[in-house]
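Run log // design_07
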């Protein structure tokens, strides 16, 4: 009888201690990070021909879009990027885009810091099942949903980044304020001379320190990271 009572007491203490331990840990780094993601790419389409290549990165991102270590509300986005293979003096180009049969013409503005590259935000959320056809300068083709074949999706990529960067993510945390924001993008394989596509996760703290990690979309292995 005494042994049973002693066992029950020990078991109760273990449960209580575990409860305090869980309470003491509070919100996980992953939960904090998911609540402070200022850009998340979930879907990535790609296409190319001999004269140019094009990509669409879509998901949610902060509005207004400020890289300052502070997270604000997110809105849907779809960043359309066209990279010309030949030099041009154009400041703006026009492309025709058909999403599930709905056609629209977009103006893309030249990005000054990247050679012969033009961008615009479609201000929509592109989905995995969408059929996207692009036409520019007489060339037309369907874009491929590359992210549909990723073994490591955006959620898993953020989880891996949190495991690798837990101390860096929380280095400016005060009470319930993380004082950091995260960015998850797909690395452009053509611009970076990669055979495969990779996730790039970046954490920006309120003190303007930033850290990045490159994660394989195939097996989740870490290819490179800031120290």
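design_07 sequence
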């Amino acid at each position: 009888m005494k042994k049973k009572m002693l066992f029950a007491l020990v078991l109760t203490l273990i449960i209580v201690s575990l409860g305090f331990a869980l309470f003491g840990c509070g919100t996980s780094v992953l939960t904090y990070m998911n609540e402070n993601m200022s850009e998340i790419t979930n879907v990535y389409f790609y296409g190319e021909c001999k004269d140019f290549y094009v990509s669409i990165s879509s998901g949610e991102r902060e509005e207004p879009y400020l890289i300052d270590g502070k997270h604000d509300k997110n809105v849907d986005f779809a960043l359309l990027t066209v990279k010309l293979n030949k030099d041009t003096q154009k400041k703006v180009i026009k492309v025709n885009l058909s999403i599930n049969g709905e056609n629209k013409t977009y103006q893309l503005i030249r990005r000054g810091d990247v050679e012969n590259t033009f961008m615009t935000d479609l201000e929509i959320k592109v989905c995995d099942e969408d059929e996207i056809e692009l036409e520019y300068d007489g060339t037309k083709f369907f874009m491929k949903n590359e992210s549909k074949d990723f073994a490591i999706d955006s959620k898993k990529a953020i989880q891996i980044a949190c495991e690798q960067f837990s101390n860096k993510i929380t280095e400016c945390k005060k009470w319930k304020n993380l004082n950091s924001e995260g960015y998850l993008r797909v690395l452009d394989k053509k611009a970076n001379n990669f055979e495969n596509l990779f996730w790039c996760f970046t954490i920006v703290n309120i003190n303007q320190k930033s850290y990045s990690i490159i994660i394989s979309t195939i097996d989740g292995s870490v290819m490179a990271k800031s120290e």
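The chain is about 20% helix and 40% strand.
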